[in-house]
Amino acid sequence: MKKLVSLLMILLMLFAAAPSYAGEAEGASRILVAYLSRAGENYNVGIAREGSASAAYAGYIEKGNTAIMAAMIAEMTGGSLFEIRTVTPYPDDYASMLRTAQEEIDTDARPELAAQVENMADYDIVFIGYPIWHGRMPQAVYSFIEAYDLTGKTVIPFNTHEGSGQSGTQRVIESVLPGSTVLQGLAIRGKTAQEDTEQAQALISEWLEGLDMKKAYTGEEAEVLAAYRAIQQAMIDKDIETLDRLYRDGTTFTHMSGKKQTKEEFFGEIADGTLNYFAYDILNPVITVDGGEAVLTADVTLTAKVYGASGSWTLPVNAHFTKTDGQWIAHN
Ligand SMILES: Cc1cc2nc3c(=O)[nH]c(=O)nc-3n(C[C@H](O)[C@H](O)[C@H](O)COP(=O)(O)O)c2cc1C
What global pTM score does this model have? Predict the structure, then answer.
């Protein structure tokens, strides 16, 4: 019985879930995610082990660690990606790259870049990403920074490494960009970015949320989000009239236990104090709109008291909506 109740509880909360979204007010900010990264062979990833058993040979990586991190940031912020490439490409093999990087440091080089950001003036927020090379930011990142006037912009460093963390590069960027607002950067292990997508996404998501930099929704995506939030607020407020309006008639709630509940039964338990919702938070929302249909998926943390049990739970949510008379209506 206890198990049944807890399953019901989870499912009921799952249906009740709706997101808040930290960066939504960010609105019109334009975001650039610029990064330098190398594919090929690197410390810990893409290692060519000549002569070793074939199982140990993973082959060169096709996409650099920082490139993977940059793509995740662009996805989560809605930013545009820009790859910082040098006119002379960097070597694929690790040993040669170690030498090249050291030579560039020794000569305080400013390697020539292969492409420019044409419309830098349009961006308010510039993420700058790089690997740590010999404890430092690659010299080509100095070439990039020095090529633009970043005064008045918000600059956010990010990097991958294999043990050095940010290695002091946060302060370096702050000192070379005194006219910019430099926010706290994030360093993650290159191997994590390359091989543990889930972990990398979680670290990046948490960091971006802390900076209030997550994607601002616009248009129909924003409408779906607003409808979802309205449902959640109505759950908290026990506003049954609004809930009834935002859920399609005939919607049934099928619980993990197999039990089905009509929306009237579900709302009845909210109204009579069996189900009580207090707060919610959303992680990694993805909204897909296709004509008059929309799906919102996310991990939602809910704080509630249901069937006498209080707690916070993080649950996967997959909510379907159909646009009816100009309003997104939830259903299953
Ligand atoms: C030339 C070179 C020097 C490196 N030096 C360091 C270092 O000092 N500290 C560290 O933690 N990792 C160091 N690494 C590892 C890289 O920072 C790490 O593999 C990073 O994820 C590579 O990113 P990328 O794939 O985007 O190029 C070095 C790698 C290279 C190629």
Answer: 0.64
